[in-house]
Amino acid sequence: MYRKLLIAIDPDDDGEGKRALAAAMDLLDEDGELHLASVYSPGGGGFFPHVTEEAPEEKEAEVREVLDLLVRKYLPLNRSANLHVVAGNAGEKLVGLAGQLCADLLMLVSRGSTGHWPMRRATVEHVSVNAPCPVLVLPSLEKSGPEPGEKESVD
């Protein structure tokens, strides 16, 4: 059982959040601390870095609201979670936050090279190699199987 568990959450994937919270409840001590983190990109839009869709404060508030909703929907009533919304590089920020919190376990969901959140293979690898604590990577629910007509390869 873990005393301090940090979960990286994609604010745009409710199913992923539900799954990660369920897994966390199986791993967290009865009186352990649960921390949910989401990292967003504060940058602008491509060739026009000075143009942003939303002000950083608005984006942070929006992400925090989504995390709060996930907690209210999927966390047992006798549990609470600390919410962390940070701007920047996802891998670096998650590793830094795990160190700052002295987390016992960092949990994230691998999205592979798909998905809209910057939790790509490079981020998962960076976190796995650099985290100051053990890292649990839950596989994505959306596993891509063989294309119709293709045989599944066995290695």
Structure description:
By secondary structure, the chain is of the alpha/beta class. α1 packs across α2 and α3 packs parallel to α4. Strands 3-2-1-4-5 form a five-stranded parallel sheet, sandwiched between helices. The chain has four helices and five strands; from the N terminus they run βαβαβαβαβ. About 9% of the residues have low confidence. The N and C termini lie far apart (34 Å). α4 links the parallel β4 and β5. The protein is 35% helix and 23% strand. The radius of gyration is 17 Å and the shape is globular.
Number of strands: 5
| Fraction of residues in β-strands | 15-25%
| Spatial arrangement of strands, main beta sheet | 3-2-1-4-5
Q: Major β-sheet, in short?
A: 5 strands, parallel
What Rg do the Cα atoms give?
17 Å
Q: Helix count?
A: 4
Overall pLDDT metric: 81
| Low-confidence segments | 44-51, 143-148
Structural class: alpha/beta
Distance between the termini: 34 Å
Order of helices and strands: EHEHEHEHE
Backbone shape: globular
Percent of residues in helices: 25-40%
